[in-house]
Amino acid sequence: MAVTIKSSREIELMREAGRILAITHEELGKAIKPGMSTYDIDHLGEEIIRSYGCIPSFLNYQGYPASICVSVNDEVVHGIPNKRRIIREGDIVSLDAGVIYKGYHSDAARTHAVGEISKEARRLIDVTRQSFYEGIKYAKAGNHLFEISRAIQKYVEANGFSVVRDLVGHGIGTNLHEAPEVPNFAQKRKGMKLRAGMTLAIEPMVNAGHYDVCWCDDEWTVVTADESLSAHYENTILITEEGYEILSLR
Ligand code: MF3
Ligand code: CO
């Protein structure tokens, strides 16, 4: 599928989708406590999304059975919420959520600390989040996609962590996943030239150890191959002539 350039009407709808998603993440971040199950988090997230008249993007997407992906510790992404999976003090929990507002998607992820966490876990969360900001310094009409990818990788590796190779960011709009793919690592190709009106979900997934990942038997949950911790940070952004606008933050 070709890359789509959004009209000002479409951008307006994606701003609203992003605003609601930002609120959802803020509320989930405040609610997260030791003793909750990953199912409790999903349930609350779905309630918040629906309370704004939105549909959870992920529910039933290619058979995914929940609204929020809840990935704990060495789980990288796509953890399936479960009543028996209880989060504990010291865990790190990545929440990935998407909403559909009037046919337009927004997609964002945050990694939260549950109570007190190790210094290394804190640093992993901070470096992952900052790598997104290092990347979008290059988000501007006329630049090439690989400048974003390269900046993310460079920052992560300079901090001693690794960027997952098997999963990438993506274009977004009337579909959750649209062209182009947005890798978090440099490739030989320069990638596409960015144009104003492109909307992208940029989502570094960062491992404390090696970048290799495996898929679990549930066919969704992705874990680090070496069982090291992993963090995720994602926002939906709009490319403009001057730079970018982050749609899934307030
Ligand atoms: N942010 C993730 C992505 O871009 C969410 C998809 S999870 C799924 O792929 F459950 F919807 F597949
Ligand atoms: Co995404």
Account of the 3D structure:
The chain has about 250 residues and is an alpha+beta fold. The chain is built from four helices and 15 strands. It has a five-stranded antiparallel beta sheet. Strands 1, 2, 4 and 5 form a four-stranded antiparallel beta sheet that branches. A hairpin with a 6-residue loop joins strand 11 (about 215) and strand 12 (about 220-225). The protein is globular. The chain binds 2-amino-4-trifluoromethylsulfanyl-butyric acid and cobalt (II) ion (CO). 2-amino-4-trifluoromethylsulfanyl-butyric acid binds near residues 61 and 78.
Topology:
Layout: H1 8-31, H2 38-51, E1 55-56, E2 68-72, E3 75-77, E4 92-101, E5 104-113, H3 119-136, H4 145-158, E6 162-163, E7 169-171, E8 178-182, E9 199-202, E10 205-207, E11 213-215, E12 222-224, E13 230-232, E14 235-239, E15 244-246
Antiparallel strand pairs: 1-4, 2-4, 3-12, 4-5, 6-10, 7-8, 7-9, 9-14, 10-13, 11-12, 14-15
The structure holds 2-amino-4-trifluoromethylsulfanyl-butyric acid and cobalt (II) ion.
The site of cobalt (II) ion has 5 residues, from loops.
Give the N-to-C terminal Cα separation.
Answer: 30 Å
**Which shape, going by the Cα principal axes?**
globular
Portion in beta strands: 25-35%
Number of strands: 15
- Oligomer status: single chain
Tally of alpha and pi helices: 4
Helix/strand/pairing category? alpha+beta
Small molecules in complex? 2-amino-4-trifluoromethylsulfanyl-butyric acid, cobalt (II) ion
Radius of gyration over all CA atoms, rounded: 17 Å
Order of helices and strands: HHEEEEEHHEEEEEEEEEE
Residue share in helix: 25-40%
